[in-house]
Design a protein that fits this description.
Layout (H helix, E strand, L loop, with lengths): L1 E5 L1 H8 L6 H12 L3 E6 H12 L4 H14 E4 L3 H8 L6 H13 L4 E3 L12 E3 L1 H12 L1
């Protein structure tokens, strides 16, 4: 079973139904729900998504959505070592560095699914857009 970190932008595409990206995001999350892949997120993703969803919805509705999300994904740990690695990395975006090193240090994640592939150019993991990732899933079934 493939193990993927699902980046913040993909989660937000799903929750905000951002076209044309939301269909791919929904399909990736559906693979997590059906246990065809093992999806991972970080506490940073939860925090950022909460903040952004809360701008347009009630606390209760946001908590309900996030609870559903964490029932189909696993949350990676982010500790002091990961933060120090991110602070001293070549990543231009600190949040992306935190996501990346949380995934790398976990030792189980195979790849990062994000629309911002270029932001992860310093990652030792594979990085794919949701659309390209779904194409590989379809190809592997044939």
């Amino acid at each position: 079973m493939q193990k993927v970190l699902i980046d913040t932008d993909v989660i937000l595409d799903f929750f905000f139904d951002r076209k044309p990206f939301s269909d791919h995001a929904a399909n990736v999350l559906s693979l997590c729900e059906s246990r065809e892949i093992r999806g991972f997120i970080t506490s940073v993703i939860i925090s950022n998504v909460y903040y952004l969803l809360r701008q347009t919805s009630t606390h209760e509705k946001v908590i309900e959505k996030l609870t559903q999300l964490i029932t189909i994904t696993e949350v990676l740990k982010t500790d002091k070592d990961i933060i120090l690695k991110a602070l001293n990395s070549n990543f231009r975006d600190f949040e992306d560095a935190l996501q990346n090193y949380s995934a790398e240090f976990n030792g189980q994640v195979d790849l990062i699914v994000t629309r911002n592939v270029k932001d992860f150019k310093h990652s030792s993991l594979g990085v794919m857009t949701p659309g390209n990732y779904l194409k590989t899933i379809i190809a592997s079934r044939q």
